[in-house]
Amino acid sequence: MTELDSLPATRDAYDAxxxxxxxxxxxxxxDRSLERALLAAFAESVRAGGEGEVADLGCGPGHVTAHxxxxxxxxFGVDASPAMIELARKANPDLRFEVGSMAALDIADGxxxxxxxxxxxxxTPPKDLPALVAEFARVLAPxxxxxxxxxxxxxxxxxxxxxxxxxxxxxxxxPDHLAGLLxxxxxxxxxxxLCEPKPTDKRQFQExxxxxxxx
Length: 215
Prior knowledge:
GO terms for molecular function: methyltransferase activity. With 215 residues, the chain is an alpha/beta fold. The chain has helices at residues 7-25, 33-48, 63-70, 82-91, 129-139, 175-184; strands at 54-57, 75-79, 97-99, 112-118, 140-151, 160-163, 170-173, 187-195, 207-214.
């Protein structure tokens, strides 16, 4: 897949806020017991399939990559923002982090036992999402596990809705639409969880956690 036209603006925007982002979000899993449970289930499924490497795509400052390693996975991180990768390497010198694009991964076909995309598709323009999930499918081995999280649309019949984001324009997705795009590239939904927002959350959107496996 060729590079996305939207990538330079997204990369530059996250470079500019990397330090603040890392300070604000590196402890987010502490108060998200359900997400920790889903990550544990994802890790167990990866291990059951053969212990392949796991890519945390859009890894940011690397805190979730480190969490995956703590769950026993051979995890590494990829992010388009060099500033984010620099922070990730400093915080986790024993882990591997690479500057790269989810749309054009420097990873061989079928090389991975798992892919995590935690809120990393939210800045992908709708026209580019089918090719992006195809890239996820390309790097997964048969039986490889995929866990995607993103915000969900208000109406499942609406494929996508844009929303203002403090960094750069973002999108939320219909769970059925996203599952259909995965199915088109040979990745089958295993489970989905829709989390209701807390009254104190900045954005009052449902959050989707979608677990799938490559056929």
